[in-house]
Specification:
mainly alpha; about 350 residues; 3-stranded antiparallel beta sheet; MAIN-like; single chain; AminoTfrase-like_pln_mobile; elongated
Length: about 350
């Protein structure tokens, strides 16, 4: 029988409780991905946000996430990656070595701030009325009592407000800031840090948006990475059936970095997903997070299974030796590819790293 654990357990000491122990015993170990962004992007399509709101989102560092848009999550890919994740080292263990997603990746893929004030906090035990008053002050509306779950608010309450309210040229600046905060709360709860239910978001995040500093935005990138690491560590344990965190980020990282794994990149501008937020194309797309598309992505999502991904990871070293390739795309090469997509340049250049993601 194959041994999926480490030979030396002095470092990887948690194998007994790792989900890789169940790979042979349970053929259906595909994780369920928690997310709540589908309704949010539908609202953006129905009611595009005003350019003043988008400008605030750009200053806060969240515009790149919206520009990347909604993508389908390949749960089989996520499951295969989690089976390779080791909580002891916070890295994926492949046959060619270790790799991990870093702050640099977050900056390149989503252009999230990775410097600035850290996102920290302590849970606050307020009454529902106190939370209603707090939302009225900083979000611009007073949600119903049934919209709260202790210090959390339902995403549906935020989406309903966005669907029926939008700023215009005459709106006061405070109203613009409030609408931007509502959008960010939807982004956090639906894309960056989905919770166990996938339909609520903690109001504690709002405390870091009371004062919006254009010169020094908060360090959301570090918070997102820490949350993602936590979710990967929890999902890597035996018996876990679901995972949250920034799964879109993880999937884009895998497709962009693992060169033997990704679908075929498309250089055709017509194939790119539509930009639904800046209808007049006033704001520039952040240079690092140009939305990408892949020609055979639907085939991959429907055909590939967790077992095939696992087999692909196992054969990485033989494929690399046979094809004279490197295992991972470097950060500069990833940036160059994004720039080519932005310019719609069909010429192809490549740069390869020495098996490292840093």
């Amino acid at each position: 029988m194959a041994n999926f654990g480490p030979i030396d357990t002095s470092v990887l000491y948690g194998q007994a409780n790792h989900r890789s122990e169940d790979v042979l015993g349970d053929p259906d170990t595909t994780l369920t991905v928690r997310r709540g962004d589908i309704s949010f992007f539908r609202v953006l399509q129905l009611v595009p946000r005003h350019i003043r709101v988008l400008q605030v989102l750009q200053n806060m560092g969240f515009l790149g996430i919206l520009q990347c848009g909604h993508i389908e999550i390949d749960t089989h890919l996520i499951t295969a990656l989690v089976e390779r994740w080791r909580p002891e080292t916070h890295t994926f263990h492949f046959s060619v070595g270790e790799a991990t997603i870093t702050l640099q990746d977050i900056s390149i893929i989503w252009a999230l701030p990775i410097e600035g004030n850290l996102i920290t906090g302590v849970d606050i035990k307020w009454t529902t009325q106190q939370w209603q008053n707090y939302c009225h002050q900083w979000l611009g509306f007073r949600p119903n009592e049934d919209a709260f779950k202790r210090s959390r608010i339902k995403l549906s309450a935020l989406l309903d407000w966005l669907l029926n309210n939008t700023c215009d040229d005459e709106s006061p600046f405070d109203a613009v800031l409030q609408e931007a905060r509502v959008c960010v709360m939807c982004i956090i709860g639906g894309i960056l840090c989905p919770d166990a239910t996938g339909n609520t978001v903690s109001l504690l995040y709002l405390r870091h948006m009371e004062i919006i500093d254009e010169e020094r935005p908060s360090n959301w990138g570090t918070a997102v990475l820490a949350y993602l690491y936590r979710e990967l560590c929890m999902a890597s344990q035996r018996g876990k059936t679901n995972i949250g965190g920034a799964m879109q980020l993880l999937q884009i990282w895998a497709w962009s970095r693992i060169i033997t794994l990704a679908p075929i990149p498309s250089n055709n501008a017509a194939d790119l997903m539509p930009t639904v937020i800046d209808v007049e194309n006033i704001l520039p797309i952040p240079i690092c997070c140009t939305p990408l598309s892949w020609d055979n992505v639907h085939w991959v999502l429907s055909i590939i299974s967790s077992q095939l991904y696992a087999s692909s990871f196992n054969s990485l070293i033989s494929v690399i030796i046979r094809s004279n390739l490197r295992a991972f795309t470097s950060a500069p090469a990833l940036q160059q590819r994004n720039h080519r997509h932005e310019a719609n340049d069909s010429s192809s250049t490549s740069a390869n790293a020495n098996g490292s993601t840093c």
